[in-house]
Amino acid sequence: MQMQQIQCNNMEQHPSTKQENLRQSYETIIRYCADDCKRPGLIKTPERAAQAMLFFTKGYEDNLDDLINGAVFNEDHDDMVIVKDIEIFSLCEHHLVPFIGKAHIGYIPNKKVLGLSKIARIVEMFSRRLQVQERLTKQIATALIKAVQPFGVGVVIEASHMCMVMRGIQKINAVTITSCMMDVFREDSKTREEFLKLIRT
């Protein structure tokens, strides 16, 4: 079977074209798994899987400026702000299986604060992509720095990776923890310790 070569980087496609290309690809995958796409249980699966993959990777359609949409407010507050236990659902870029967990984010404002829901939306934007947890952690921290130029940012992510649970080593209780500390969170141990203590309370 001759396979059409598709350039993977920065593909610009109409949403309906993208979904149809994904549908055809999933149909091919099912066929190569030695099953019958025409049997009742699978006949709509390529279409459903294509829709699901578009949702799983919808973060590629977002950008930081549009996401924040002006929700930056002048505020004379210079103590730590923390939003913790933000659910994360992402896809491991190595195996295209999920990793699931939670993010804890803290920052110290420098005369500007960000709308709290926007912090969760930043997490959503970067997690709804093909990812590795290490990069995801840093992208979230960097975006918050760009958004409000705080005195510092701390991000901790805890996640369970299905590539370690469903395949390979198959360790169902393994949890991966990553952190990114920027500016005062990296430079000042007391600030870092306060953040780490508060996210565990």
Automatic annotation (TrEMBL):
EC number: 3.5.4.16
Coiled-coil ranges per UniProt: none
InterPro entries assigned: GTP-CH-I_C/QueF (IPR043133), GTP-CH-I_N (IPR043134), GTP_CycHdrlase_I (IPR001474), GTP_CycHdrlase_I_CS (IPR018234), GTP_CycHdrlase_I_dom (IPR020602)
GO molecular function term, any single one: GTP cyclohydrolase I activity
Keyword Nucleotide-binding set for record: yes
Annotated Pfam families: GTP_cyclohydroI
Database matches in NCBIfam families: folE, PRK09347.1-2, PRK09347.1-3
Family per similarity comment: Belongs to the GTP cyclohydrolase I family.
Protein name, UniProt field: GTP cyclohydrolase 1
Organism: Wuchereria bancrofti
